[in-house]
Amino acid sequence: MSILISPSTMRALEKDIIATGIAPEALIQTVGTACALAIRQQWPELRRVFVCAGPGNNGADALVCAAALARANISVTLISWHRPLADSWLIAARTAGADYIENWDVEAIQSLVPHVNLIVDGLLGIGLNRPPVDILAQLIDALNARSARLPLIAIDIPSGCDAATGEIPGVAIRADFTLSTGPVKVGLLLLPASLHTGPIIELKTEITIPAYDRRATRLLDRESVRTLLPIRPVDSYKGTYGIVCVWAGSSTFPGAAQLACLATARSGAGIVALAAAPDVIPLAWPTPEVTLVPLTDNPHDALMQSQFSTYLVGPGIGRSNETAALLHSFLSSADLSGRPVVIDADALTLLARIPEWQSVIATLPCVLTPHYGELRRLAGGQCESLPPVELAQHYARSWNQVIVMKGSVTVIASPDGRASLWAHPNPALAVAGSGDVLAGIVAAYIAQHCDLYSAACLAVAVHGMAGQKTAAVHGSAGVLAGELAAAIPAVVQELRAQ
What we know:
- There is one protein chain.
- The chain is of the alpha/beta class.
- The chain folds into 2 domains: about 5-215, Rossmann fold (3-Layer(aba) Sandwich), CATH 3.40.50; about 220-495, UDP-N-acetylmuramoyl-L-alanine:D-glutamate ligase (3-Layer(aba) Sandwich).
- The protein has helices spanning about 5-20, 25-40, 55-70, 90-95, 105-110, 135-145, 220-225, 255-265, 280-285, 300-305, 320-330, 345-355, 355-360, 370-380, 390-400, 435-445, 450-475, 480-495; strands at about 5, 50-55, 75-80, 100, 120, 150-155, 175-180, 185, 200, 215-220, 245, 270-275, 290-295, 310-315, 340-345, 365-370, 400-405, 410-415, 420.
- α3 (about 55-70) runs parallel beside α4, α8 packs across α16 and α8 (about 255-265) packs parallel to α18.
- The protein is elongated.
- The mean pLDDT is about 95.
């Protein structure tokens, strides 16, 4: 699995395939047959299967699967929900030998389930528009109450999960495996739906999309991330890898500056310079390798030194009016001259206070790293009602900046429409300072000449892998953000060694 798509893109792909002359019925036949083949390969000794089919194409896929299994001399018991007896797919499944229960209730299902070896869920597909209720909700609850030894396969998506947002508006099937009938739907990698899918098996069908298609969301993994790592020439020197000015820290949050600087240095930046007030520097200075930029009588000029190639602004700087004025002056200065800026934490909140803030940074190459609350503030107090990936893409286009929308699953979006997903939720990262570390990694990779979008994708993945590595030693509770920064070199070394 390397790319993800939205339900609307799936429908467009199906429409495109049909436009080439492939009949919709042939497409359903291919998908349902592929489901049956995948099931038989996974369980070659399969004897008794219970198939639940709903309306629409997802139910038709399940019925074709039922027919194919029945023709393979597997005992198939079949029920349908909101599908007429005259439906051609249902007739074909019954003709193939599936035992159809026309008038069923939940009690009958509860009696049947212990006597089968596998359950196939084809009740609801990507067209979910309301929570399951009444008999359908009761059926889902009954299937979820099955023995842990009885596997359940969902076709395309566990019924009740939203294929775009990952939300579960009511009840949803808890599957042991999900057979994706074409590219995987993005909602399956988002919480809470990702807790319902089990391992996802992507079936080979006519429904495909090239990775370069901007409608495809890239799923970040070790292989794709490895290709983004900057080259480290043997004849390089510290200037090769950039000079990052980290404007961070305050008397209240000196640790934010420490963590941001450490992460920037540990991610390979050539020189890291901490910009902070003189009284903050003794509290925030993390290590002698980090140089210092005291923000004294003329902090603007101190920040504008020509040798700085990249900036990280925001971790722990506070939200005072004085800091807000300095940030506005800094971002709107012609002296910044197009140098890239990572805007994080307090700087995002202060930026949102500036009227028409988008115009202030319009000529700057920026990476904005908001969590949802900060994104909402930047959007004026109310975000657009869109699925997570589309939400990040919307604001990346609207603001013409790279967006890292942080969360348990993090979305990276580019103004040109590209989007990537880091889909490995890890409670070990839910710790103070974790975001400061991430921002430092982003700045370091920009300084090493990665383009802004690639730097953001690489940083999110390295940060996530550092969390995995640290949690493997310390567990999911009690991990310190400083330990994440310390783990970065080992993570990168493992990626390079692949």
